[in-house]
Amino acid sequence: MAGTHILVINAGSSSIKTALFDGDLAEVLRIEATGIGGIGAVKTGAASEPADLPDNAAALAAIIDALSRQGIALTSLRAVAHRVVHGGTALTAPHRITPAIRQAIVDCIPLAPLHNPHHLAAIDAVSALAPDLPQCASFDTAFHATIPDLARRYALPDRPDLAGLQRYGFHGTSYAALVRNLPQQSGTLPKRLLAFHLGNGASACAILDGQSVATTMGYSPLSGLTMGTRVGEIDAGAVLRLVRQLGLDQTETLLNHHSGLLGLSGISSDMRTLENSDTPKARFAIDHFCYWAARQAGSLIAAMGGLDAVAFTGGIGENSALIRTAVLDKLSWMGKFPSYTVAAQEEIQIAGEANALLTT
């Protein structure tokens, strides 16, 4: 087994998720560390045990220990592949991690201050433990590098101090996996495909001839559709008022962590909980989620010049027939079109991209 396995790492602020793939890119094992910042848990397959996880370094160490107890040493892997949220304008394809690529990820920290530092911490921890082990990175923003300037640029002056303020788009690894896997259901990739990644984070993407031409998320993963705890679409003037009223930090917390389904319902950010609730606020939150998914889909359909098919992925997209039906009903004005549900396969997409880098 030595030298054949690829470990995919998705490092966040409160959890680190990993998936192990063999030489044929078949998933072998999943290990997750959750509750980082206190007493959390490490889940290996279906088994879970409590663990003291004061920080990300401790969480990654616990994962590596759990891996070794399964007979897999870190140094025996073929490679480690990381999901990195933001690659900016420079990193628009998967890369083997070199000092230059690492620095480019560092340079993107201002674009993703809540995400990229955690990815870098995982990269550096692996480097410290196994300095000769190849590492690769796949970027959530990369799939959207094909978006034309008309769709990408905000109507801001062309000034050096405003450089980098543009629409990037996210969930790119999920959309890339969907493009790869949908033809197994549809027979061929639809020319004008409206894709929804619906989960705690939610977005939609216009995919024309297999390439992203528009998406609902923009400069950050905060904009676009109604999400679990993120506000989605909101006027910049309202944000400026909140900053004046609450201050920057409280505004950021409100918009990222206390809005969306949680803020509207006052109950939960979990769609399953809301679907099982009979309160008016829960129903309104669900209706808001579906209304804005369909309403913003209209602009994406315009960007493609029509619609040939719709595809859903992500936790809500895959598992909630109620949400899929509600969104499709609101798009019925487009006439008849096929719709598909595609299992999210971000980890195997990342493993495949790393495998391709290692074999070229």
Q: Can you walk through the features of this model?
A:
The chain is an alpha/beta fold. It folds into two domains: 134 residues, Nucleotidyltransferase, domain 5 (2-Layer Sandwich); 161 residues, Nucleotidyltransferase, domain 5, CATH 3.30.420.40. Helices cover 39% and strands 21% of the residues. The protein contains 14 helices and 13 strands. The strands form two sheets. An eight-stranded mixed β-sheet has the order 5-4-3-2-1-6-8-7, with helices on both faces. A five-stranded mixed β-sheet has the order 11-10-9-12-13, with helices on both faces. Strand 10 and strand 11 form a beta hairpin. Helix 7 packs across helix 8 and helix 11 packs across helix 13. The radius of gyration is 20 Å and the shape is globular. The model has no long low-confidence stretch (mean pLDDT 95).
Let me know the number of strands: 13
Shape assignment? globular
CATH superfamily of the largest domain: ATPase, nucleotide binding domain
Task: Output the radius of gyration.
Answer: 20 Å
Using the 3D structure, state the CATH architecture of the largest domain.
2-Layer Sandwich
Number of domains: 2
Number of helices: 14
CATH topology value of the largest domain: Nucleotidyltransferase, domain 5
How many angstroms does the end-to-end distance come to? 22 Å
Helix content: 25-40%
